[in-house]
Amino acid sequence: MIGIIAAIYRRRFRKEFVHPNPNLGVIENLVYMMDFNGDANYKPAKEVIKALNAWNIVLAEHELNSSTAAIRHVASTDADIYSCMAGALATVIGRRHGGAN
Known about the structure:
By secondary structure, the protein is mostly helical.
């Protein structure tokens, strides 16, 4: 998937496709493949990789439905079970939930 993303990005700027580096992680490879400039020693900036890894975790966390995400967030603060349930239930009350429950 990251190869496709990088290829589309590079094509947009009329740059040649860059093959992944087997010594890099997923996010690091994405940045490498998008920004590679021909320098054999090129490596993506650590700050960029750290930020994109955090962003990737946030995106993965939002794959849950609202009540599941809410109960997990509240529980991660060591709140009691009643507070966790209240937080989860509160998400299905709002008009933007879609009325599924």
